[in-house]
Design a protein that fits this description.
Layout: E1 2-6, H1 10-21, E2 25-29, H2 33-40, H3 51-60, E3 64-67, H4 70-76, E4 79-82, H5 97-108, E5 114-118, H6 126-137, E6 144-148, H7 158-163, E7 168-171, H8 175-184, H9 186-189, E8 195-198, H10 200-231, H11 235-243, H12 264-277, H13 283-307, E9 314-318, H14 333-343, E10 347-351, H15 356-362, E11 369-371, E12 384-387, H16 392-395, H17 399-405, E13 410-413, E14 427-429
Parallel strand pairs: 1-2, 1-4, 2-3, 4-5, 5-6, 7-8, 9-10, 9-12, 10-11, 12-13, 13-14
Helix pairs in contact: 1-3, 5-6, 10-11, 10-12, 10-13, 12-13
The structure holds uridine-5'-diphosphate-xylopyranose (UDX).
């Protein structure tokens, strides 16, 4: 099928390249011209495992093209995915101005039936606004549908998640739209991936409800970890014990410094506001946020309890990205940790295999802040090593070499990547154990 994707950010670029890889002919329109030029040359401005390969393959085979021309993009196909940003505004609500803007532009260039699809995460009932806006600004009265098809892509493994979805959720208002989606997602339903077809409002709500539930699950195990520290129980043992109940499930029960990223913090805030806008107090999610903030505070307090004075201490930090396999540092716990330790006068040696470039935009190299291309170099004369992101390379570190390089053998593990029983040579501290 022919498909138009509006926006070449995390969601749009993955959606466009994956649909092309499935044999569709895709035109992806993006307003940042420099990114369009790079993408046309097969260079991605986003770090995702496997993205460059499938981008280049589909460019060569002529199944994907990038443009800045909205008119061409709207007229190119009858199915148009809106994948523009819906960032958090100051009051916590989702900023929908980009969705409104592209809706107006779509209206201007309608040339026959269109299925306009919200893929960006939007508050429930946004589809009604998109419909109203297109009807208001349409130059010609042409038939169109608005649908919701939320994404469930985890950063770092987004292509895997697109190609192996637990489920595909679409919210439609017409048989015509239903038929189009059934055809588009046939490669997935043929492989047994469930396609849940509902109405647009339910589909919009499923996205916020799903992400918020995952964030809540993380805060739940982090609350348990705080209690475990008080009563001398290993939280990982508790996580294992409850996770074996298939109604709980073992995933997303890793206690630690808490969640970050561009989705959970934003989606939880937005969901709380959506509830409030409908006169409901979503206390459960407010508590989810409070526990998440508490975990970072608890980690910083732990450092102080262990180090006594942080001023002039040499502290190495392994991990700056908000999670492994990405260069993204949005809402990353490392930001709060580095900011406070720098303010306390510590000398910081930072390492992350992907996220240092982005981190330098917030914390440039200085007298107190140094970056290292090699994780062991960051350990020289260190009085403590903090683990903030659970990259595999840290789990496989040569602990003998770690001990030799450090001035004091103190490891404070914010992601519980080591087993206490293996850490006899160190003063080893972790979360909830
Ligand atoms: C999330 C959702 O998983 C995805 O479905 C949605 O589309 C976008 O938001 P993402 O934010 O990329 O994806 O990362 P994810 O792997 O979900 O982790 C989110 C945060 O939770 C990270 O900071 C991670 O460190 C943290 N986390 C995750 C935990 O602290 N404990 C866990 O057990 C799992």
């Amino acid at each position: 099928m022919k498909i138009t994707v509006i926006g070449a950010g995390y969601v749009g670029l993955i959606t466009a390249t994956c649909f092309a890889d499935l044999g569709n002919e895709v035109l992806c329109v993006e307003k940042i011209e420099s990114n369009v030029h790079k993408l046309q040359k097969g260079i991605s401005h986003i770090y995702e495992q496997g993205l460059t390969e499938i981008l280049q393959k589909n460019l060569e085979e002529g199944r994907i093209r990038f443009t800045t021309d909205m008119e061409e993009a709207v007229k190119f196909s009858e199915i148009i995915f809106i994948c523009v940003g819906t960032p958090q505004s100051d009051d916590g609500k989702a900023d929908l101005s980009q969705v409104e803007d592209v809706s107006r532009q779509i209206a201007q260039y309608l040339n026959g039936y269109k299925l306009i699809v919200e893929k960006s995460t939007v508050p429930v009932n946004t589809h009604q606004w998109v419909k109203k806006t297109i009807a208001r600004y349409a130059h010609e009265k042409s038939e169109f549908d608005v649908a919701s098809n939320p994404e469930f892509l985890r950063e770092g493994v987004a292509i895997h998640d697109f190609m192996n979805p637990d489920r595909i959720v679409v919210g439609v208002e017409s048989e015509k739209a239903r038929t189009i989606f059934e055809k588009l997602y046939l490669p997935f339903t043929n492989e047994g991936h469930p396609l849940l077809i509902t109405n647009p409002a339910a589909a919009e709500l499923i996205k916020h409800a799903s992400n918020s539930f995952l964030a809540m699950k993380i805060s739940y195990i982090n609350m348990i970890s705080a209690l475990c520290e008080k009563v001398g129980v290993d939280v990982n043992m508790v996580a294992q014990g409850i996770g074996l109940d298939n109604r709980v499930g073992e995933k997303f029960l890793n206690a630690g410094i808490g969640y970050g990223g561009s989705c959970f913090p934003k989606d939880v805030q937005a969901f709380i506001k959506i509830a409030e806008d409908h006169g409901l107090e979503f206390g459960l999610l407010k508590e989810t946020e409070k526990i998440n903030a508490f975990q970072r505070r608890a980690f910083l307090d732990k450092i102080e309890d262990i180090m006594w004075i942080n001023k002039d201490k040499n502290i190495a930090v392994w991990g700056l990205a908000f999670k492994p396999d990405t260069d993204d540092i949005r809402e990353a716990p490392a930001i709060d940790v580095v900011r406070e330790l720098e303010a306390n006068g510590a000398n910081l040696s930072l390492y992350d295999q992907e996220a240092m470039t982005n981190f330098k935009n917030i914390f440039p190299e200085s007298k107190r802040i140094k970056y290292f291309e090699d994780k062991y170099q960051a350990l020289k004369d260190a009085d403590a090593l903090l683990i903030i992101t659970e990259w595999d390379e840290f789990k496989q570190a040569d602990l003998k070499k770690v001990k030799e390089l450090m001035r004091l053998p103190i490891i404070i593990d914010g992601r519980n990547i080591f087993e206490p029983s293996d850490m006899g040579e160190f003063e080893y501290y972790s979360m909830g154990r």
